[in-house]
Predict the 3D structure of the following.
Amino acid sequence: MTYHSNQVDGLDYASNDHLALASDLHSIRRSGWTIITLKQLVEAVIRQRMDSLPRRSLAITFDDGSYFDWYDLEHPVFGMQRSFASILREFVHSDPVYSGVSGLVTSFVIVSPRARECLDQTCLIGQGWWGDEWWPIAQAEGLFSIQNHSWDHKHPGVAERLRYGSDYGSFQQLRDSQECDWQIAQAQAYLVSLNGAGTARYFAYPYGDCPDILAYDYLPGRQQQTGLMAAFSTEPEPVTAASNRWLLPRYVCRRDWSSESELMSLLNSLKR
Ligand SMILES: [Zn+2]
């Protein structure tokens, strides 16, 4: 399951991913689902041991990685927003099953500091809300695992002078292995320099765009160099024993469900 902490467009479930996440955590518990880490999920896929996971289990991921993931912030229109981290801490506090779990949720972050500086101006309100000083703190606390969502997302809000290649606004076109290195390997190196060796293991495709050059060539071929073990799309499907580890699907909040009852219908449709 995927949430975006920047998605604050109102003060109800359907327009605010923070309110949706808080509600969903309790729905998940009440309906008997278990939250597993991305590490547990990926290892089960790689070892072909999906039966080793709890029945009815799911993993939680966040995309883009601004301060709304980590800090409670005063939104200019909608007031104080509790961060995803605050919501999770309260949830874990109320359910000791999850206390001490390392990497309970995974945050896929846009890695380039200069790209984030631009996006702070173009997508947020220019208050310096897209820093990375919280990544090693979050990783050390254990609640979050910080992972790779590419160097700059090929986001159209990134200044022209900082870009590599063309077609910003989509991640479908990576021309060659140099561009893959620029988006993937460069981001891996930065994450490792901040969070420590062996911490950057998973990649999430920006916009859910999964170019063949990454899924079938670069990622499987360069595991040793990049340190990556799996990659996540936003194809709305459950992960199964037949899933390709470089194209693991995810459901996205608002696109695939936008109320408590829709979440319940979705989860009920997946029961095994
Ligand atoms: Zn994204």
About this structure: The beta strands are 2-3, 34-35, 57-58, 60-64, 73-75, 79-81, 105-109, 144-148, 202-204, 230-232. The chain has one domain: 2-266.
